[in-house]
Design brief:
By secondary structure, the protein is mostly helical. Helices cover about 75% and strands about 0% of the residues. The mean pLDDT is about 85. The chain is flat and about 55 Å long. It has two domains: about 1-115, Up-down Bundle (Four Helix Bundle (Hemerythrin (Met), subunit A)), CATH 1.20.120; about 120-255, no CATH class. It is built from nine helices and no strands. It is found in: Membrane. This is Cytochrome c-type biogenesis protein CcsB. One of its GO terms (molecular function) is heme binding.
Length: about 260
C-alpha cells in the first residue's frame, strides 16, 4: 500500500533536484525558466504540506524538527527564485537546491505522524521563538551559499557583489538570532523555571550568535571577499551543528526538537 504521507513529503526533495538540474543549465534562458518553475512548485508543495499539518493540529505547525525544516525548505525555495532572477549564477542555484535536497532527504527519514504539542511548547512565545530561528537559519543558509561560491571563484566584480549580499544577509540574520535567544530565554523561564539552563541547544545557539557577531565585527573592520567568506562558512557549520549535531549528539531539554 502507498504511504501517501511519505509520497507527499518527497515533494521538497524531488523539486529541489529539479531546481538544481534547471539551475545547472541557467546560462540558457530555458534552464533558468525550468529552475524557477521547479522552485515555485517546490514552494507551493512545501507550503501545502505545512497547511495540511496545521489543519491537523489546529495551529501553526511549529512543534517539531520536521515542521521547522518544512518551513525552512519553503523559504529557501523562495530565495532560490529570487537568486535565479537576480544573479543567474548556476553555482548559487545548484548549491542552494542541494541544501534543500538534503533537508528533503532528512524529512523522508523522520516520523511524519502529527502528534499533540509537548506541554513545554504550549506558550505564546513559541511562534516568535521558532519563526525567528527559522528565518535566521534561512538567510544564513543563503549567505553561506554565496560565501561558498565566493571561496571557489576568482576575484572579480561578481565575487565582490556576492560578498556584499552575503554580508547584508548576515546583517539580517544576526538580529533574528538575537530575537530567537531573547524569546527562547523568556520561554525557558515559563517552561522550566529558569531563563538560562545551560542546555546544550542554548549554549550552541549562543556560540552561533557570537560567531556571526565576530563576522560582522571583522567585516566592518576591513575583512572582505575570501577571508570573510571563510568565516561565514565556519558560522554556517556552527548553525548546522546547533540544529542537527546537538539534537543527535548532545540531547537535553530541547530533545523534542
Amino acid at each position: 500500500m502507498i504511504n501517501w504521507q511519505h509520497l507527499l513529503m518527497a515533494a521538497p526533495l524531488v523539486l529541489a533536484i529539479c531546481t538544481a538540474l534547471g539551475g545547472a543549465l541557467s546560462k540558457r534562458s530555458v534552464g533558468t525558466n525550468l529552475a524557477t518553475i521547479a522552485a515555485a512548485l517546490g514552494f507551493v508543495a512545501t507550503a501545502g504540506i505545512i497547511v495540511v499539518r496545521g489543519i491537523q493540529v489546529g495551529h501553526l505547525p511549529l512543534g517539531s524538527g520536521l515542521d521547522f525544516c518544512l518551513w525552512l525548505c519553503a523559504v529557501l525555495f523562495l530565495f532560490n527564485i529570487l537568486l535565479l532572477r537576480r544573479l543567474q549564477l548556476p553555482a548559487v542555484s545548484v548549491l542552494l537546491s542541494l541544501m534543500v535536497g538534503i533537508l528533503g532527504a532528512w524529512l523522508l527519514s523522520q516520523n511524519q505522524t502529527v502528534t499533540p504539542m509537548a506541554p513545554a511548547l504550549r506558550s505564546p512565545w513559541l511562534s516568535v521563538h521558532v519563526l525567528s530561528a527559522m528565518f535566521s537559519y534561512s538567510v544564513l543558509t543563503v549567505s553561506f551559499v554565496l560565501s561558498a561560491v565566493i571561496a571557489a571563484r576568482p576575484m572579480d566584480s561578481t565575487t565582490i557583489k556576492l560578498d556584499e549580499w552575503a554580508y547584508r544577509l548576515v546583517l539580517l540574520g544576526l538580529p533574528l538570532l538575537t530575537v530567537m535567544l531573547v524569546t527562547g530565554s523568556v520561554w525557558a523561564e515559563y517552561a522550566w523555571g529558569s531563563f538560562w539552563s545551560w542546555d546544550w541547544k542554548e549554549v550552541w545557539a549562543l556560540v552561533t550568535w557570537l560567531v556571526y557577531a565576530l563576522y560582522l565585527h571583522l567585516r566592518v573592520s576591513g575583512w572582505r571577499n575570501k577571508k570573510a567568506a571563510v568565516l561565514n562558512i565556519l558560522g554556517f557549520a556552527v548553525v548546522v551543528f546547533t540544529f542537527f549535531g546537538v539534537s543527535y549528539l548532545l540531547p537535553g531539554l530541547h530533545s523534542y526538537l
